[in-house]
TrEMBL record:
InterPro entries: NERD. It comes from the Eukaryota. Residues 30-148 form the NERD domain. This is NERD domain-containing protein. Pfam families: NERD.
Length: 280
């Protein structure tokens, strides 16, 4: 009997994986993975370039605004917040979202109004672009909140800027000349950007501060902040001359239980502060 149950579970997982849509398969695994999954699909839907994990300087608060995704197309710039929420979500009178039975099951968690937050991020981004020489025309900057988690449930009607899981599933790639009314209403609202502004915006965002990323096997990605190398003194000696500003990517060729890369470093060679405080 137990063998039948086990075989049945294995068969169920194989069938589920075979028939599942790869674009939605990983959104429940981690919040960082959900960000990159959404960014990748936005690029497929609308073209352009998606910048993930930006940390835009905010002159008013002398701090940085964490921005999930900025999608730059030839028509517009979209500031996108990804809310990987599961469970039943209700909206409080102050606009905050109350999530029950989510990742921690029997807990209730409250999140500030995501739409208000992403509008604030868009304002900071617009000021940042202006400081670096790009002024967007009215209507060329818009905000969206995407909820890609299939376990999200709600009875509320959200503003058009909020893309629920059901709506997110239905969105299909379309050419500019064949924009459907629904898709156009969902994302495309502004005027066409000038080519020079488009190129300069891509350059600015490509050089803007952003969170470090650790890319693991199976295309899993973790966002965080690189702190330091740790290990035995003789192992880290070769790394002392590395300047962070000069390094764009570190590639690990080989790992083992006791080492990392070509160095016999301890497993805590790279420390990351995970973004648990800003991920849902």
């Amino acid at each position: 009997m137990w063998m039948e149950i086990i075989c049945g579970l294995v068969l169920y997982q194989l069938v589920r994986r075979f028939f599942s849509d790869d674009e939605f398969a990983d959104v429940e695994t981690s919040d960082s993975t959900a960000l990159f999954s959404v960014a990748h699909r936005l690029e497929k839907l609308y073209g352009g370039k998606a910048f993930v994990g930006l940390r835009i300087p905010d002159a008013d608060t002398s701090s940085r605004q964490d921005v999930d995704i900025v999608l730059v197309t030839k028509d517009e710039v979209f500031v996108v917040a990804v809310k990987n929420l599961s469970g039943i979500v209700t909206v409080a009178s102050d606009g905050s979202w109350v999530c029950e039975g989510g990742k921690h099951h029997h807990t209730t968690e409250t999140y500030p109004d995501p739409l208000a937050e992403v509008k604030k991020q868009a304002s900071v981004l617009e000021s940042y672009l202006e400081q670096r020489g790009v002024t967007l025309l009215e209507g060329n900057l818009s905000c969206k909140v995407v909820i890609p988690n299939p376990s999200f449930r709600t009875i509320h009607a959200f503003p058009s800027e909020v893309i629920t899981y059901e709506e997110w599933q239905l969105m299909k790639p379309v050419s500019k000349s064949k924009l459907s009314g629904w898709v156009k209403g969902a994302f495309s609202t502004g005027k066409e950007m000038q080519e020079s502004s488009h190129q300069k915006t891509n350059f600015i965002l490509g050089t803007a501060p952003m969170w470090d990323r650790l890319e693991l096997k199976s295309s899993k990605i973790v966002l965080g902040e690189f702190l330091e190398f740790k290990g035995k003194q003789e192992d880290t000696a070769a790394l002392r001359n590395i300047k962070r500003s000069k390094v764009d990517r570190i590639s690990i060729q080989k790992t083992s239980m006791f080492g990392l890369g070509n160095f016999s470093l301890e497993l805590d060679i790279i420390c990351l502060h995970l973004l648990s405080h800003s991920r849902v």
